[in-house]
Amino acid sequence: MKENRKLPLIAAHQGVAQCGYILGNTLDAFDIALKDGADIIELDAALSADGEVFTFHPGTEPVRLNLPRNALAQMKSEEIRELRLVQPDKSLTYFPICTLEESLRHLKGRCYINVDKSWTCLPQIMEVVRRVGVSDQVILKSNIRGENWKREVLEVEQYAPDVCYMPVFYEEDTASEFIESRNVRYFGAEVVFKTEESMLASEAYIDRMHEKGRKLWVNAIVFNYRTVLSAGHTDDISLKDPELGWGWMVRHNFDIIQTDWARELSLYRAIEAQVSTPSHAQAIR
After folding, report:
1. Alpha helices in 27-84 (DSSP H)
2. Do the Cβ atoms of 57 and 117 come closer than 8 Å?
3. H or E element: which one contains 103?
């Protein structure tokens, strides 16, 4: 890969996810991640039974709340406001589940914000985004797989044509031509690949996307031990030897790295800045 490279932006997964007592998807987690050098806060959106959007990863209720899976979708907002997150050992914390509006107001003017799971309730999310006035900070995504991906792209076109949109590609890019034909702000893609031989990790593909002015988001997070997101170049490996994880991503000119270890990645990036031609990470706009 080319030696002259731009250093990547750092996307903090749920802020600082499960860092000591601090739990992810909380205002404290966001503040700490930004202090640690994150440029982007990734947070999740979940819809209540009466239509309010909360900052919570749907489906994680058994771990985060000691409740049945997807319980929040069956609860009214006033019930959700009374809940408190729990630690993995089920001990209760003081952390409430913030509304998306509270999270966006907290982060307004401070960083880019990836509202994940946005395809599950995009109209409600965009109502909040417009009300808070953070359209220029938000990044939306949708998965390019299954039967509904075209419908989800068209929903972005309908509700958020001016907001940065990133499709999530798995192993190959089969949707760029369609997305380019729509009135969406297609500024880049999240790429997920099991091996280094994937087209999504190839120099030709990365160069082609950059020539079109698009950015590429890659994941160092470990979702679980079975799911390979970036050919094994993970946070876990990076903490032992950064060159085998984050360094590989930097050398391949990926523009955004999502991590659970924002501080450590920021320190590594600072070291790289001393030896790279550009002196700092580049903005996405």
Report:
1. 27-35, 61-64, 77-80
2. yes
3. helix 100-107
Classify 24 in phi/psi space as left (phi over 0), alpha (psi -120 to 50) or beta. Answer: beta
Q: What is the residue whose two structure tokens read 């808070």?
A: 132
The CA-CA-CA angle for residues 100, 264, 113, to 5°, reads 20
Q: Which of 45, 35, 39 is nearest to 12 (CA)?
A: 39
- For the stretch 41-50, pLDDT in tens is 999 999 999 9
One-letter amino acid at 31 equals: D
Return the closest-CA partner of residue 24 out of 60, 52, 51: 60
Residue 210 phi, psi (nearest 5) = -65, -35
Q: Are strands 53-55 and 40-47 parallel, antiparallel or unpaired?
A: antiparallel
Q: What is the pLDDT of residues 104-139, one digit of tens each?
A: 999 999 999 999 999 999 999 999 999 999 999 999
Rg (CA), the chain: 18
- For residue 281, pLDDT beyond 80: no
Query: What contacts 241, CB < 8 A, 6 or more positions away?
Result: none
DSSP letters of 158-206? HH-TTSEEEEEEESB--SHHHHHTSSSEE-EEEEEBSSTTSGGGSHHHH
The encoded tokens of residue 228 equal 């390979």
Angle at 250 between CA 247 and CA 255, to 5 degrees: 145
Residue 192 pLDDT:
98
